[in-house]
Amino acid sequence: MNAMHDPQSAPRSAAGPGRLKNSRPLPLSPIVRAKETHRGLPAACLVFLTSGACGAPAHDAQTHDTQTRFAVTATVEAVARVVTQSAPSQVVVSTTDVERGFVDVAEPMRLRVSANSPGCVLDIVTVAPMLSSLVLKGLGSDQRLEAAGGTVVERWTPRGIQPSTADLVLHFRLMLAPQIAPGSYPWPLRVFVRPVESPAA
């Protein structure tokens, strides 16, 4: 009589439960192997491992510095200013003055001139038709000017680009026109100043 086969008494496979005899383990994917082999590495490096880019040489960007050089020049404009500190307000003509033909004005004209040029130009203008000419004194040598006035150049050495200041004391001899009678007349002269480099100098 044949013995009945008991499934429970059959010897179990040495491979253990759920595993076939002589079966081979399934290969792990590259991603799983990377995770198991490099467990504990930073996530950023794992990304390089799975992508195959870990250890690739990095290329630094080169920065090019550009330098530009240029020359800057500045031109200081020549300027001159004048302040009249005192001046005669009128001219008193006496009979003696008429007879001799001129008046020596006792009160001088005092000017303070500032300029950043090596001197200044004085423009003297007659504003009343009472003169035939005039003589200007006080600038080294006497300057004889026409009835309408004239131009006198006064030179000095400036202190760098800082304005130089000069105090001028001008004396006048007024040569009278033939029709002038004795009496009092308004001061007939005006003085203007400009730098010596002015094209009109």
Structural write-up:
Residues 1-5, 7-20, 34-38 and 43-54 have low confidence and may be disordered. The protein is mainly β and 201 residues long. It is 11% helix and 35% strand. The protein folds into two domains: 27-55, no CATH class; 80-195, Sandwich (Immunoglobulin-like), CATH 2.60.40. It is elongated. The chain has helices spanning 30-37, 43-51, 95-100, and strands at residues 80-86, 90-93, 102-104, 109-115, 119-126, 131-137, 143-146, 149-155, 164-176, 183-186, 189-195.
**What's the Cα radius of gyration?**
55 Å
In one word, what is the shape? elongated
**Based on DSSP secondary structure assignment, what is the total number of beta strands?**
11
For the termini, the CA-CA separation is: 153 Å
Indicate the percent of residues in helices.
Answer: 10-25%
At CATH level 2, the architecture of the largest domain is Sandwich
Q: Determine and state the CATH class of the largest domain.
A: Mainly Beta
